Batch of 2 targets.
Target 1
Amino acid sequence: MIGRRGAALAAMAAATLSLMAQPAAQAPAPGAAAAGAITVGGDVTKPLSLSADDLKAMPRTTVTVSEEGREIKYDGVLVGEVLKRAGAPLGRDMGGQAVASYVLAKAKDGYQVVFSLPELDPAFTSNDIIIADTIDGKPLFDYQGPFRLVAPHDKRGARSIRMLQSLDLVRLRK
Amino acid sequence: MRLLAIGVALVSAAIARAQTPVPWVWPSIPSNFARPRVPADNPMTVEKVSLGRHLFYDTRLSGNRTQSCATCHEQARAFTDGKGRAVGSTGAVHPRGAMSLVNVAYAASLTWANPSQTRLEDQALVPMFGDHPVELGLAQPGSAMLAALRRVDVYQRLMPRAFPGDADPFTVANVTRAIAAFERTIVSARSSYDRYHYDRDDSAISAEAKRGEQLFFSQPLSCFRCHNGFNFSGATDFAGRREGGSPEYHNTGLYNLAGALSYPPDNTGVYEVSRRPDDVGRFKAPTLRNIAVTGPYMHDGSIATLSEVLDHYAAGGRTVVQGPNRGVGHDNPNKSPIVRGFPLTADQKRDLVAFLEALTDVEALGDSRFANPWLASSQEDRWR
């Protein structure tokens, strides 16, 4: 577990949107969220589809964010860990042309956000951006989950995309 | 002699305790819910809240003794009045409806369309003394009202206890401080939705309401972008927030009149204050907590039901087909880009209404601490 209280305080310092107030998906059938999966594709060498159980079995990271006067813990897997398993150029491979890469995250309702690849690489930054599957030890709410990308250092919550469905790596220079 | 000295000391201590205001704590706010921010110059005390509650329900605060604050802010209606447009003590009709006071302590700005109104203490002066329109209709500078209050035993007890440092606590400023303090106690945090969301009681709301929640927070509908945060409203503020929320106002395409002003001339929104053309039709997104009991809706009560409100947003603006306000709201030049319209089936509309109904806080609407203290059923508060 990586307690990121400092990050939480930084987020609280300038938060103008609650993480609760993020775009989400159209209403699926009840229970459909639990059967979700995340696909990892684009310019990766080993495209993946990760189920909820797959994520549970991976190394876990907890981040704490401040929402409207209270602290909330999200638990999940570093996005960098998932990208590494998909063969994205991270760690020693992060450099040169690989720096000119970004990850497009898409939600079930069509909402999209972008992260540069270096800001998702644990070897490059201490900003622990995770794919969360629990909130305060419980499954995410239907309108959030089953997976939510949580960027605790962002001052606004707009990139903490709810109902995450896919991550696509785009390498601008190859 | 020694016993006498001890007795005197005990009595003195008791008097000192009686004269020291007791800090207010919010019994109705769960531990994981935001606390209101309290102005440094108007700390919350039990005595001040009690005084404010009596004043809030007192018709001596209107010029002709026919209305109190509670006339237009009824607890059972989440402190609204069921009217599309409020009616003042002299019969003057307000261009806008009485806003809910539930969770008003969290509002970063007050009223439908005045960004400069940010303090409850200041806002209270508007209904008391305003003449455009006349609401409570008190005469400036309030001397007659204060004289009337002085003649009441309850206030002879409450005023000095609420403001113990004042040589003469009977001032208009203290009246507004006390009313503001009472208003800050009116917190709604125990709706079915809160039990679901904060207590993780998955059975607290229906499957329909959960589907409605997902629609509410979905990208195509984007309801949450204006009604955001824990209060489902425009900008909020609370204790500990490093940056206060900035007031936000939106033109939702409710009207699109021909001519220079696209909204009815008596109700132009922030434009009335700013005189900026792009502010025509911009109003605050009110809290959706208890929205099911606060109809009719919109700033002027021109939509009767929540279902019809959803029709307005699904259409990306209302079309008024006849009369002086006819026009296609969808095409209003100032309309918020968020109000684009969206497809909505009958089932989805029912789900959304179920979600909105889950925001009703029955406990707050019946909480005796917010009720009329002058009624026989609320005598417990009269000792103060």
Target 2
Amino acid sequence: MTTPAPFQFIGCVELRQALDHRARDERELLDRLEDVPAGSVFYHTHGYFLRHRPITTAYGNDFAAWAAVQVRDQVLAERLAVINPFEMASLEDLREELMSAVHDHLLRLSTIPRVEFGEAFHFQQSHIVEVPLGPAVSTLAELRAGLAEVDASAIYFHMVEARARLGRRSGDFAEWIRTSLQLPALAERIERIDTYMTSLERVRARVLALVDGALEEASA
Amino acid sequence: MIAIDDYRRVAPPGAIDMLLRLAERVRGRRLLHVSGGRFGGGPAEILHTLVPMMADLGVDAAWEITGGDPGFYATAAALRAALDGAERVLTDEALDHYVEMNRVNAKKIALDADLVLVHDVLPATLVEHRGAQGRWVWRCHFDSSHAQRRAWTFLRPYVNQFDAAVFSLPKFGRRLGIPKYIIAPSIDPLSEKNRDLTAREVTTILRGLGVSQDRPILLQVAPFTAAEDPLGVVNAYRLVRKHYHVRLVLAGTGDADRESRETLAELREAASHDPDITVLELPPDAHVQINALQRAATIVLQKSVHEGFGLGAAEAMWKGKPVVGGVAGGLTQQIVYDVTGYTVHSVEGAAFRLRHLLNNPELIARMGAAGREHVRRSFLVTRHLTDYMALLIHLTR
């Protein structure tokens, strides 16, 4: 029997970069959405979950939060909030979905909702700096111990960044458990965890619960 | 001396380990901060914390300052004010002298580093004298979005000689030919201004300031200028006073300029007719006094109409206080509406929210706790240092 390849936890720091694109009304939001790099679409959707804390109101992405808080257009906010970035095959598909939501919304209106007393939407993108954390792990029990302690950004990196931007569609935990530990059923359960509209700590707790279940089964 | 490990008890879980790992990645690379002075103002205050922390992490970090004659400082101050949107007269002769003084500074300072972070306006034109090695970044600590045209036209060619610029908020930046990164400023939770104080320390300090704790205290800590709207705070307090027996404390550092003196005189006039209003003109180093005032306050106001990042809100939230702030500068980033406090557009709005909080004391506790956690995650110096390390790694790959 061969020794499984070890798993290295990777945390991350998000270095934010401002772009020269901003929107003060919903038409401008639509136009800029078409122009900005895909990395900016990623930052304002998937990246929302790295920055989002449970104390703040959940809107699902920065575009919906802006429509709700700054423009005070709850209808567009709802339409944008339900777009699940994790269900899209690519960032371009996600961009299309967001643009369609804004476009369809504007078709029903006689005037363009705009910021009156709030702030403009400033488009940004981010550069992820990867940081290896802790010693590499080789068993499911070691993975469990590391997962419980690791910085929350590692949960984001392995469950969100890996899937959405690095093309590892299963996520790193599921992939390693499937290929190195040969536990496809557990891998599939972890892969099915819904990372949308929740916090990184909640995702951590769900992965830990599944791993605990598998460890109990193994010991029984 | 405070060590990096001391921050473990205040930083988010895992943050210090993350910093240690980042430090390993930048080992061998040199980071140089250049600022206009070692005292006064937020940038210098935070560098006093950041640079020793970097050294403690094993990062080769240094801090140099520029110097010059009174004309150099006067022109740089006028240029800084004009870049912040104020009307100032900037003559070609004065600007030439400012540039010339930095040419002299460039000869005196060892500017060789892998990353040179140039803070604000005083040292900005040093970039003319950069060598071929190393990356140069302009760290702008103020809101340049409403800069006077003449001032920006002068500075922009210098800024474009940097490899990148860093602003505190996206809305503070301007169109440039270089990348613009966003790094929010921070507070040091272990500094005199923010460290824990015992109830006895707070009481002793307030007694020394002549502030009674017999009633709920509404507090604003800010310069006595129109931008911070202290007179608006008095008017909001007067609306609240009809329903609640509270005290109002306005604390700040008085400047010698006419506007500050006039505002202070008006506040003193208001206080002379109301014993529940206290106006405290504090020296610039009254950090522990401000700390005690913020801890003794029931609600903290930051009712600015024009503001930079306005870290006073973060300081108050770190002490578990809800903040009622103006819609200005970085206050909208710090105050999460209805979660850590309220942003308001008017005197009446401020009074309404103060009454709302005083009428629902459980909200004060809940928002205070949420504010402290919000600051822990987003506005502590540990996050600031993490961002600078990420910038160093990203730009010197």
